[in-house]
What we know:
nucleotide-binding; alpha+beta; four-stranded antiparallel beta sheet; 18 helices; ten-stranded mixed beta sheet; tRNA binding; ATP-binding
Amino acid sequence: MNIGEIRAKYLEFFEKRGHAIIPSAPIIPENDPTTLFTGSGMQPLIPYLLGKEHPLGDRLVNSQTCFRAMDIDEVGDNRHTTFFEMLGNWSLGNYFKSKQIPWLFEFLTEVIGLDPKRLYVTVFIGDEKNGIPRDTESVALWKELFERKGIEAKEVALGSGADGYRLGMQNGRIFYYDASKNWWSRAGAPQDMPEGEPGGPDTEVFYDFGTPHDKKYGQECHPNCDCGRFLEIGNAVFMQYKKERNGSFALLPKQNVDFGGGLERIAAAKNDNPDVFATDVFEELIELLEYYSNGKSYDDSRHTRSFRIIADHIRAATFMIADGVKPSNTDRGYILRRLIRRAAQHAIALGCAQGQEKENELVRCAIIVIEKYKQWYTKLVGEEVYETISREIWQEEKQFAHTLEHGTREFGKMISDNISGEQAFMLFTTYGFPLEMTLEMAEEKGKSVDEMGFKQLMEKHKATSRAGSEQKFKGGLADTSIATTRLHTAHHLLLKALQIVLGSHVKQRGSSITSERLRIDFSHADKMKPEQIAEVERIVNEKINEALPVACSTISKSEAEKLGAQQEFGAKYPDMVSVYSVGPKGATKENPQFEKAFSIEFCGGPHVENTKELGGKFKILKEEAVASGVRRIKAILA
């Protein structure tokens, strides 16, 4: 059973049970500037899990494309991928455990055909300190389902993962774990949840491949063991509690179900092969790479890791580029650049030609990905998309070839002695020279590399980058470049123009601003008419041409509210706030003249000092609906 068949059967199974099929959201979050990528199936649905009504009802199902950058360094084993599809079904206050668990068991055993004797489950052991009981309801349901198949379902209380390595399987079928394994909330464990935060226990399903336990991971094996015998294939979260002001937990009035199952992992279980790269979506990629790698084989353990890294990274890069990401040195673009270059590095290790022609091996891999997925994901359809993906990968690979030349020269200057952590870090950050290549070349010369020193510097670098990213993405700005800054100021003009043309009910509901375009989500029920769009464009361009000063003032929140300063929906502001006002002529920071200003907004900047700096002409590219009562505009400065 291939990936496409499993995906189709899952959607059909839950559609027959009253679920509306919803499309996969892009892997680039549309309304969440706090994170770079969509990393789980439930991420785009958080507003609805927290109480917002979904326009398609309270039973939903889909297959969501996901990307997890933190797993890049894990790729190479038999089960980690950066890009994956998550099968999901949700109940928004409709059904609960008594339907979800039997449906899940039926789908896995009857529809997919997994042997129930190979399935093991985990549940929440409870939290006595916080007054949260053991999840005996889920246990009772699982016991009945297994017993119908003639399988004894013994309960075993383990607790933590460390306890699992100590206590082992004990002939169990249902295993109790603590909050570190079987509890979900955005804040983590119950004790870490703030007042009002929802959360709940989950139950996870594991497939047993029956491989021997590797004691390097722990003395005894258990479902959450990392030795590879068990693979988690599904996780149903039962969001049923809310933390109260006094620290206690109360039942939510509407209790939700959030299920996520790894599509590739379910396929691996169906194949009874723990290697997710043995599934059909990777098969042709690996065959192509074997063909161009001068006789090297995926089954040769010396090369398996390289085959896996190339296959995973090019699949992820293909979807990223289709969603509009381009290689760069910052944020999403940096992650994409790292994926392509890491794939190129391992293609070199396999002996594949690099950067020589437009349709080289990595580009051919991307074409295979497009053909495999375009039936399900229309963003991959079309000659323009094909050309864009091919061009970006090829150009990045060519640029990497030049980088390697420079890095190799610098390496040659250092190799008279062992390579320090600082030197390896400089090769990586300045010349884009991967650590793996530094290690290989040093080994050839009989020299060592201070890997620990390199990793310590990398952790410090990542922490700094994360902090910078959190700051940059505050308010929806992708970066603080001049181009992005200009569009940020244009965003303020646009919001005010929308209020003038459509009415004072218009409020900002989200934003995303890059160096290439701005995007605003705003409250308005109806599709804008062409004449309304034209009038908004006219007003914004008029204010640009008027060369109005842009002043920043720090005033009290209450004073800003009295002035009618615009606030972002849902944002919380301190007692003293930064306010940006546009106009009138003659206004300054010392004398902002708020009463005559064109627009006033709560904002942390950055902005131009005068609207004449925006340059060019403001142009609306697209106006569309994104949710009930919320419209979206994408615009540029041409």
